[in-house]
Amino acid sequence: MKRIVLAGALVTAFAAGLVAQPTTAQPPAAGAPAQAPKGPSPDEVKALQAVMAASQGGDFDGVIKAAEDVVTRFPDSTYKDMVLSAESDAYKGKRDWIKAQIYAEQALAANPKSYQANLQLSDLLAQHTGEHDLDKEEKLTKADKYAHQALDLLATAPKPQPNLPDAQWDGYKQALTAQAQHDLALSAMSRKKWDDAIAAFKAAIAIDPQPAYKVQMASALQSQGKNDEAIALCDEVLAMPQLHPAIQAAAKNIKEVATKAKGK
Q1: How does pLDDT run across 76-95, given as a tens digit for each residue?
Q2: What topology is assigned to 210-264 in CATH?
Q3: pTM for the whole thing?
Q4: For a tag on the chain, would you pick the N or C end, based on fewer CB atoms within 10 A?
């Protein structure tokens, strides 16, 4: 996902020392000379670079090992939330949803204003809440809360480092905003609130017209009985070049269901 790409970009920026270092220190006393915020030590930079290298290489176990090294050796690291988010993504890559959620929660605890951690949690809860889970409504309510928090934070999020081109940063923010809308749509689908789901899908697609989003919207349209619209959207997706086989199969299946429903 583009969220993972952004994590890699942030690690690169942090590890290379390209961003101004934030500080939580109190202001100096009147007349005292101002001190520049202290950046990470060479050892911490090296540890962060290990997380970056493993993330860019798609080495999930390597990310987990490197992230644990950072958290253990540098528990007060300015970049703790970013490292924990990278570890959460690694566990998601390993399809270990429970640990992915645990580390995303730790990332959010380390930085309550982390839009990335909020997005990770909304995504995990929206996608992995079962139809018959006893705490289904509680999970989906949390998913919605995290998605809305991410949207609020993204609206005013500054660039992680000044040298990042505006167009690239805007592209990242748009992709993440679409992801939050997508999570809201999935949550609404789980509740069978089709109007809400379709509205959220439309918002996501308007920003980031991914074929996966369109197929899921077609499913919501078909479930609502809007079979003609579902078929038209499936046809639009199926006409796309180099379509992923899984998305192609899903679009064909939804179109077939919608066509049969029309016949009845």
Answers
A1: 998 999 999 999 999 999 99
A2: Methane Monooxygenase Hydroxylase; Chain G, domain 1 (1.20.58)
A3: 0.83
A4: C
